[in-house]
Amino acid sequence: MTTIDISASKFIPLSAHYGLNDNIVLDATLFEFNNGFNLIQQPIFTNTQDVAIGNNSFLSITPLRAFYDFANAQKLVDKGEFVIFTGLKNKKSNKYITNIDNVLYASATACNVLEFFKIYKTSTGIGYYVSQNDLYATVVLEKGKWDIVMSEKLTDDPYNIQKFYVSSNQTMDTLTIKSMFTVPQWSSKWTVPIERFWSYSSITSAVRSNGLVSDDDYLPENNYCWLTTVDVGLFAIGFDCDIKWVKYYNEIGDKRFNGTVDIKEVVRNIPLNYLVSCPYEKLIQVDNKTGKMDVNISNLKNIATSENNYGDV
To answer: Which of 21, 76, 113, 295 has the most CB atoms around its CB within 10 Å?
Structure first.
């Protein structure tokens, strides 16, 4: 009988790889041992609830966990195609922007869909428009005021009073809106772009582009941050793996918002059981003495989205 010597270094460790989308990476840790044997440990297979083999596939079920407990997903925003419809609520005052006679105020306790803003790239590719009902957010060029009003679209905007720069935080639920306008009628020092963020008056609640942030540290306690009524991540390219429950108004007492699409609450990072399947007859990719095994991941809807009980979420 012929025998073949096999050393531990001849074994190649395998890692699960989500081949349907390269932006989704499954967490993995490589353990190397002195005898040459290597092992890859992945959270997606930790505390597996059940396993089965059938139809040339390996199947396993994860315990209850959020997707980002075992994976990472890169979300890319194509700024050239970036368009969102959203209400804006100030993070400090907890008040929505409302339109009163085409002047914007951060004074409303709720946001009707008719007061959603459309935020999209300008035709020149420089800056964004913030429009509402065919009117466009415009900075009033008066010294010490700079209110934001809604007016007709300008065919020529040499002072950039209708152009804004929009940034989002990492959680994709907060925006900052920065003006880049010039004031030619003032002294020469004001002909350079004036960088001011959308803020509001503490006296009149009028939305004004007079908030100044000297660096990129947008602290939660300042009044330049605006919460969105939609998840900006929904407009990213690729798959947003975060499972969410969206709760709308269905009140018995105060029924004002029952007929709207206003979002009352968003619950994130919902723990689910996931079915992981691997067709083991498929070719395994070998790279640098490790192997990649393509898997598919399906979330199982085996929990109830009750009205008042979110479990440990």
So the answer is: 295
Question: How far apart (Å, rounded) are the C-alpha atoms in residues 10 and 123?
Answer: 59
Which residues 6+ apart lie within 8 Å of 206 measured at CB?
103, 104, 105, 106, 147, 148, 200
pLDDT per residue over 162-189, tens digit each?
999 888 765 567 788 888 787 766 655 5
Per domain, the residue ranges of the chain are 8-74+270-300, 79-237
pTM: 0.52
**What is the total residue count of the chain?**
313
Selected from 2.60.120.580, 3.10.129.10, 2.102.10.10, 2.80.10.50, the CATH number assigned to the domain covering 79-237 reads: 2.80.10.50
Amino acid at 226: W
